[in-house]
Structure formats: C-alpha cells, structure tokens
Amino acid sequence: MTDNIRSIPRPLVRTNQWVIVLSVVLTWVTGIEWLLLIPLLSGLSGLLFGFNPIMQLAKRFLRKEPEAYLPEDWEQQQFNQKIAVSCLAIGFISFFLGWNTLGFTFTILVGVAAFVAILGFCVGCFIHYQWGQYQYRRSIKKI
Prior knowledge:
Layout: E1 7-9, H1 10-30, H2 37-49, H3 53-59, E2 71-73, H4 74-96, H5 100-119, H6 123-141
Antiparallel strand pairs: 1-2
C-alpha cells in the first residue's frame, strides 16, 4: 500500500521564506510598502489557486527531481501560508493607511517567523501542533 502524502520540496519552501524575509526588510529600509505585495499575492495565489508563482519560478532551478529533496508537509505549509498571508495583508494595509506601528508589528511577526523557519524552527508548525493538542484535550473532556 502506498501512502500519497502531499509534500513540497524543501528548497521551494525555503525560497518562499527568503522572499518573505527580503520583501519585509526591503519594505522597512525603503518605505515602499508595495514590496509586500510580492509574497502576499504569491501566497494568496497559492492558497486560492494552488499556484504559487515564487515556488513555480524556483522549481525551474531545482537540480534534482522534486521527490529527491526533503519533503515539507503540504497541509502544514498551507497553514503556515495562511498565517503569513494574513500578517502580510495586515502589514501592507496598515502601512498603506499610515498606521506604521501596526504595519511594523505584523511585518516583524511574519519576517521573524520566516527567518526563524529558515534557521530550522517553524513557529507555524508549533502553533499548528499546539492547536491540535488543544482540540484533542477538549474532545477528551467531552467524553
């Protein structure tokens, strides 16, 4: 029996994370909030249509078959992408409206989370795991 678990090659996930980090940092340095639209629209496209332009572009540069790379869980990455898109959207809208404190708050959250993920600790994965544990504990109490 073969388990068909959807996954994404790690280099594609890392590329997406680097684009988030670089877009956030460039937005802070230049003050051009429109740069946040690069990872925001790409992530939104991935969530809504299953097509992330950043990952599709990066896929062209893979030297091996996608299956040869360490896999990242697709479902977990979708959860992480929802968090990233939400933070990027709130950050972009906040900067656009001149609410810089809120803009910095949400872009710092997503930028740090993406950078920490590059270093090896996935904040979104931790949140997802804790949420699952919370739901499990609640379901046991109902029995």
